[in-house]
Amino acid sequence: MARPVVAIVGRPNVGKSTIFNRLIGDKLAIVEDKPGITRDRIYGISDWNGVSFSVIDTGGIEIDGEDFILKSIRAQAELAIEEADVIIFMCEAKSGLTNSDEEVAQILFRSGKPVVLAINKVDNMKRAEDIYEFYSLGFGDPIGISGSHGTGIGDLLDAVTALLPEETEDEYDDDVIRVALIGRPNVGKSSLVNAILGEERVIVSDMAGTTRDAIDTPFERDGQKYVLIDTAGMRKRGKVYESTEKYSVMRAMRAIERADVVLVVINGEEGIIDQDKHIAGYAHDAGKASIFVVNKWDAVQKDDKTMQHFENGIRDHFLFMTYAPVVFLSALTKQRLQKLLPVVQHVAQQHALRIATHLVNDVVSDAVAINPPPTDKGRRLRINYVTQVAVKPPTIVVFVNDPSLMHFSYERYLENKIRAAFDFQGTPIRIFTRRKSENEG
Fold first, then answer.
1. 3-class DSSP state for residue 187?
2. CA–CA separation, 28 vs 7, rounded Å?
3. Is 67 left (phi over 0), alpha (psi -120 to 50) or beta?
4. Can the peptide bond before residue 393 be classed as cis, meaning omega within 30 degrees of 0?
């Protein structure tokens, strides 16, 4: 199921990150009263009255002179238009309607995409009157909101969800493994697709960001059906796009949403950079099975320890994804390429693995016997029973006497014991702690 996407668009410093945090109920975006402070495009899931959708906070505008501000706003708005199903166009009452607001409005208006106009910083009755000038933008009734106080957010969400398309069912059968390739521009995603398929199905160029759209390519190998979802690089090569790699994230998110297995492609020549961590983090947060694919391995000077050193570097940088295997290959020479699909198939199976309740209880009981939970102020966590409630990713509920006594380090210990018993290679495991109610078992 692919969730619909909502993008929050507007000029700098209208409070986009604050509203984003309100919508997803978290503090993911950095909020600071300084234009352009959001350094990374941030992605989250929101749910309103049972309707689930993805939210993109399209901050990320680097401020570098007036002309560059306008170019950045235009680039940001155009990308949001392209990828989003509904756009929240944010202005703010304090400074009133500006030329920059009108610039964004023109782009949005031409797009034909559904737009909800939200006027932030409506913190008192005087400000409530200030929203009327925004009618001139042509997007119907402006909705007055306050990110800091939370007022008007319900009205905003009602308006947004009324315009959302329904979640779309995927057109592929359950036995098809959907594989998304993600990574920053020019790590060789398209070359890897072509190498796997054995034909030039995707345009390849040395210039970063030449893939135009996410392209689905079904194929079959050794009786197993796959679909490769190649995520687009950056759409244009103007100054704005060259100055930042954030603009490819929205498209990558859509591919991740639809995938069973995510290949996090890293350029072996360049090594690991922070952007790789951000991109891999999206796959982890989405609960997808993942494999690190180190491409361009043919171009790396190596001895018998190089591969181990590189893998150690991945483990150090990606501490949150110790479960993900690493495959070294070259899309150009096809060196070690044959190792990839068997690993894809294996982690897809682990991602969908369901363990019988009595087996997982046996493992946890043994783990508790070896290493009992520590006490907290004289009270000890007591685990009553454990059961797996979902797959993709494997999700386990631990019923206990008091969830507040479950320390994250003990939860990590239980996860490690479960992994040691049942493998689960390549997939995150979700563990939830719940209080055992009186009428249970």
1. coil
2. 16
3. alpha
4. yes
| CA gap 25, 47 in Å, rounded | 10
Paired tokens of 94: 């304090």
The pLDDT profile of the chain, 441 residues, written as one tens digit per residue, is 567 889 888 887 888 888 888 887 754 444 444 443 333 445 677 888 888 888 877 653 333 445 665 566 566 557 667 778 999 999 998 888 988 888 888 888 888 899 999 999 888 777 788 888 999 999 999 999 998 888 899 999 999 999 998 766 666 788 999 999 988 777 888 789 889 888 655 544 444 443 444 567 888 899 999 998 866 543 333 433 433 444 456 667 778 888 999 999 999 988 887 777 877 888 898 899 999 999 999 999 888 899 999 999 999 999 889 999 999 999 999 999 999 999 999 999 999 999 999 999 999 999 999 999 988 888 999 999 999 999 999 999 999 999 999 999 999 999 999 999 999 999 999 999 999 765 444
Per the CB < 8 A criterion, the answer to whether 313 and 292 are in contact is no
pTM for the model: 0.70
Contact criterion met (CB below 8 Å) for 184 and 279: yes
Return phi, psi of residue 295, to 5°: -95, 170
Q: Which tokens go with 182?
A: 């993600």
Close Cβ partners of 405 (under 8 Å, ≥ 6 residues apart): 373, 376, 379, 380, 381
- The residue among 12, 155, 23 whose CA lies nearest residue 90 is 12
Strand order in the sheet with 383-390: 383-390, 395-400, 430-435
At 168, give phi and psi (nearest 5°).
Answer: -95, 135
Buried b or exposed e, range 164-197, using 16+ CB within 10 angstroms? beeeeeeebeeebbbbbbbbbbbbbbbbbbbbbe
Give the residue from 386, 380, 387, 422 showing the smallest Cα distance to 405.
Answer: 380
With vertex at residue 8, the alpha carbon angle to CA 2 and CA 10, rounded to the nearest 5 degrees, is 155
Give me the residue label for tokens 């040395």.
Answer: 206
Handedness of CA 148, 150, 152, 158 (dihedral sign): positive
Task: Count Cα atoms within 13 angstroms, Cβ side, for 223.
Answer: 0
Task: Calculate helix-pair angle for 66-83, 249-258, nearest 10 degrees.
Answer: 20
Q: Secondary structure of the chain: what % helix, strand, coil (to 5)? A: 40, 20, 40
Q: How far apart are CA 228 and CA 248, in angstroms?
A: 18
Q: At what angle do helices 408-422 and 357-370 cross, to 10 degrees?
A: 120
